Amino acid sequence: xxxxxxxxxxxxxxxxxxxxxxxxxxxxxxxxxxxxxxxxxxxxxxxxxxxxxxxxxxxxxxxxxxxxxxxxxxxxxxxxxxxxxxxxxxxxxxxxxxxxxxxxxxxxxxxxxxxxxxxxxxxxxxxxxxxxxxxxxxxxxxxxxxxxxxxxxxxxxxxxxxxxxxxxxxxxxxxxxxxxxxxxxxxxxxxxxxxxxxxxxxxxxxxxxxxxxxxxxxxxxxxxxxxxxxxxxxxxxxxxxxxxxxxxx
Length: 249
What we know:
Blueprint: E1 2-9, H1 26-38, E2 45-46, E3 55-64, H2 71-79, E4 86-94, E5 104-115, E6 127-129, H3 137-147, E7 149-152, E8 168-179, E9 182-189, H4 196-208, H5 214-223, E10 238-245
Parallel strand pairs: 3-10, 5-6
Antiparallel strand pairs: 1-3, 1-4, 2-3, 5-9, 5-10, 7-8, 8-9
Helix pairs in contact: 3-4, 3-5
């Protein structure tokens, strides 16, 4: 049977999603647990990779396993012996052709910034920007508006020519909200390039602190080059919060 699983994790405890030689990725931990359940190696396939330090509230993966005891008992078995920083949220049987990566139609990431020096209880989940001067939120909104829509986001990726991936994406939602010292940035698209969300956030911050203008950010889409003033935001502020799939027929 094919099983679809949703999990959540504190990315600061792992070396990213994808399997690593040291065996401390999220994939390594889950596959080790599945291997003990099945008595043989079991390969899982995720909706996508998250880098070291990036978190997830709703990462999705699938695997094939002969299991006759139902989804709830498989959920209980998966939860035994895994680190506290990883939670298995749900398990359900799906059609044999379902694929956690190739059936994705939309993803949502959220990025959190704290304006100041974050306290120890949130520092692993935010980018702390300790600035004496206020940020230009109006200019940030203008820059975000330029970025929404279907564009070539080559300048906002870290591919560096290492593969021939198509760099055109449809960024349906890119906006931020502020509550006190907390900034929350939401990005939804039909897909994201390597480090694309973190670079989009870095572009907004560059505008907010006066290092770049909204027009300069728009020109990045046109010329495909990233200026040195636009940095990639730190990993710890980023979290995968939702994945949408094709509707089963």
